[in-house]
Amino acid sequence: MRIRIADIKEDGLALDLVEGVANFPVLQELHAKGESVFTQPVSVQLRAVLVSGMVEVTGRVATRVEMACSRCLGPAEVMVDSPFELTYTRELPDVEDEGGEEGVEIAAEDMGLILFAGEEIDLRGVIQEQVILALPFHPLCDPNCRGLCIKCGADLNEKACQCGPQDYNIKFAALKNLKIDD
User: Fold this and answer.
1) Is the same domain home to 9 and 83?
2) Is the pTM of this model over 0.85?
3) Sign of the torsion formed by the C-alpha atoms of 95, 99, 104 and 109
């Protein structure tokens, strides 16, 4: 998944790509471990434009992933659809020091730039990065998922357990029997 700089014309370069998870090493590792099972290939729509010697890439990455629900541990199908904007440059632009301090060094990442060399830009790493960033931290199988019982571990989506209702918030369980003298 590379863009040749020579292919970017005056009006830009538009690409629609569909790649299997096997072409992305980090995503393949997540898939092999079973942490995130990719049920669709990664679809990428992007547009690259040359601007002042830099390459601006805007686009969207999409795929479908099956993960464990964070409440009940059942399968949760998640649609990943995330826009991205990246700017590539061969060298850092000159930055004038407004504060008068000498020796201030700014890294490419601090300016939101990605350095590249040669006549091609490899997008594989940033695309898999965009997919990972778009994965939900707490995936849910259903917004109304009731989760697991904290006492017996029963799936409360399937049936009510015999533990009875909780009469206190588990976060404050240590304070349940606290007595305060006036």
Assistant:
1) yes
2) no
3) negative
Q: Which residue has the tokens 């830099």?
A: 54
Q: Do residue 34 and residue 55 come from a single domain? A: yes
Residues 70 and 127 in one domain: yes
Task: Express each pLDDT in 126-145 by its tens digit.
Answer: 899 999 999 999 999 999 99
Check whether residue 39 and residue 129 sit in a common domain. yes
Residue 99 lies in a domain: no
- pLDDT tens-digit readout, 27-62: 889 888 888 899 999 999 999 998 888 889 999 999
CA distances from 68 to 43, 78, 137 (A): 23, 10, 11
* pLDDT number for residue 174: 75
Q: Are residues 121 and 181 in the same domain?
A: no
The residue among 130, 32, 35, 15 whose CA lies nearest residue 81 is 130
